[in-house]
Specification:
homodimer; 347 residues; alpha/beta; Isopropylmalate Dehydrogenase; 2 domains; eight-stranded mixed sheet; two-stranded parallel ribbon; 13 helices
Chain lengths: 347, 347
Amino acid sequence: MGGDNGPAAVIAGMALSAAKNPDIEFILHGPEEELTRLLDKRPELKGRCRLRHATGVVSMDDKPGQVMRHGEGTSMWSAIESVRNREATVAVSCGNTGALMALSVIRLRKLPGVNRPAIACLWPSRNEVGFNVMLDVGADIKAEAPDLLQYALMGTSYARNGLGIARPRVGLLNVGTEDHKGRAELKAAHDLVAAATETGDFDYVGFVEGGDLPSARVDVIVTDGFTGNVALKTGEGTAKLVGDFLKEAFNAGMLSRFAALLALGSLKRLQRRIDPRRVNGGVFLGLNGTVVKSHGSADATGISAAIKLAFTLAKSGYQERLAARVASATQAGQDAAQNNNENGTST
Amino acid sequence: MGGDNGPAAVIAGMALSAAKNPDIEFILHGPEEELTRLLDKRPELKGRCRLRHATGVVSMDDKPGQVMRHGEGTSMWSAIESVRNREATVAVSCGNTGALMALSVIRLRKLPGVNRPAIACLWPSRNEVGFNVMLDVGADIKAEAPDLLQYALMGTSYARNGLGIARPRVGLLNVGTEDHKGRAELKAAHDLVAAATETGDFDYVGFVEGGDLPSARVDVIVTDGFTGNVALKTGEGTAKLVGDFLKEAFNAGMLSRFAALLALGSLKRLQRRIDPRRVNGGVFLGLNGTVVKSHGSADATGISAAIKLAFTLAKSGYQERLAARVASATQAGQDAAQNNNENGTST
C-alpha cells in the first residue's frame, strides 16, 4: 500500500512477474475490498495470489519509532509477519524505508553475530555480471569497524548467491586508495577485512573511491549508510541527468531526430542498461528473513524487477547460507584477529 | 610539475588559455632548464610568462605532513609563495591535493573566522547557469555544524562572484529531506544555516539528497569533505560509465554507426556538457588567497578550464569580498543565534 503509485502499480508489477515466471506465488497485504477489485482485472494472478486483510497503511511521513509502537494492523506489518511465520519466503515493499527496516528488525530480529543490519543495492558496472553490490545504502547512518567487516561478509554472501560470483572482491569506500587516508573507523576496518578473506572466502582489494563504484576491479563495495545513500542517489541523479541531456541532444534538429530514429535499437539498449528500474530493490541483510525494498516511486517495471530479485534470492537458499556464514566468519574473524594463522571453514 | 601528465600538459593548457584571453599572464614554477625548453615551443606564451626556478617536486605519494615540513624549494611551495607575496593573483596546481591544501593553509593562513577551509567544485546542473557549487569535496574528512555554516557562507560568495548568482539557494546534503533525518551535526547545522540567510544574503532550501546535486532547486550544496569527495567521484564515474555505454551503443552495428555520424553535432554537444574536463578546478575557500586545484590527470583542455576559472575568480575581486562577508556574517550569525530578530548587513 505504501508506494507513491499505490497498490495498482504493485499489482501491475506482480502481473508482469507472474506472466514471466510460472514458479512464483504471492500473498498480498492490504484492504481486502480495494485489492480484490484490482486483482479481478488481472487474470494472470488468478489462483496464484492470496489476500491478507489489513486496513492500516504506513505513510512515507510516518516516523520509524511510531510505526514500531503502533504499526500492528498495517499492511507493512502484515507482510513482515508472513515472512516471520514462514508463510512467505521473502517480503517486497515500496513503502517507507525507515519504517520497513525498523519493523523488520523488531519482528524478524537480527542474525546472531550481526550488530547493524544493512541495505544492499546493485550498481551497474563494467563487471562480467553487469553489477556491483554496494552496502550499506541507508539502514543506519553510522557504522563502526566491526559493522563494516560484517557488511563485507553479508555483501559477499549476497554477491555469491544473488549474482553467482564464486569469490567476490571486496573494496572499502574511502576518499583515496592510500592506506593512510580516511576516518579512524575505516583504517580499523581495513585491517579487520584484510584479516577475514580466508574465513569469508573473498578477496580484498583495499580502499576504493567513488569513481570505482562501476569498476570491474571490485564486486562488493562496503561503506556506512550515510555515505552509501548519498552515493546511490548521486549516481542515479547523474545517470538521469545524462539521459535527459541525451534526449535533448537528439531533439535538437531534424537531422538529429532522424539519426535517433536510425539508432533507436541501440539507444533503447543503452536506456535499458542505465534504467534505474532494472536494478530496483534494496535487500535488507543481517536479519532472520529476507526483505526487499523497492523504490517508493517504482512503476510496474520497477516492482517486477524487485520481485525478480526477491525470487532469485529466495530460490538460492541464500538466507540460510548467509546465516551460517556470518555466524562462522564472525567467530572465526574474532579468532583470527587474536591468532593470525588459524584456518576458517567455508560455508 | 605535479600532474600525472607532467609540465608539458600544463604548458599546453597555458597556451590554450593565452590564445583565448589577452588579459592573462603567467608565473611558472619548476626546473628552469626543462621549462624553458618546453616554453620555447609555445610562441603564444612569449613575453607573457615568467619563470621561477624550483628544483623540488611534490609527488602524488608524498604525505601532507612531510610536505609541510620539507616542502620548501618545491614548485608547489614556490607557486603558493607567489600568491602569498601578491606577485600572483591566484595559483593553479595539478599536484597532490592534500599537500597543496596543507601548504596553502600554513603559508596563506586561514581567513579570520574560518575554522576549516574547504574545496568547492562545480557540478553540471539543470540551473540557468548550468552549474551548482558543492563543498567541501575533500579538504577535511570531518565538519562540525559551525564549519557547515561557514561552508554555506563561502559557497554562496563563490556562487555570487564566480557564477553571477545574486541570491544563491543553499541546501544541506543529507540522506532524506525530512527535518529529523541525518547525523546530529547536520540537524544543528540546519538551524545555524536557516538563521543566517539574512546576514549571508542567501536562501535556504533545507536538506537535499544525492539526487539533487544536479537539481535546479539549489545552487550551493553544503556537506563534509568525506561525503562530498565520494559524491563528486561517484558522479564523475557514473557520467563516464554512461558515456562509455553510449559509445558502445553507437558502435554496435552499421546502422548505429551511420546514425552516430548524422548526429555527430548533437553528440559532441552532449559530450561537452558532461565532459568533466570542462568543470575542472576545485577552489580552495577560506584562505588569504585563492588556489585552484586541477585534476591530477588533467590534459591541456582540463588545465585551460582550471586557468579560466582561476582568472574569473581573480577578476571578480572575489577574494576580498569573501573575506569581508565571512568575517561579518560569522559575527552576525553568532549574534543572530543569540538574538533572532537582529538585522545583518550585506557585503
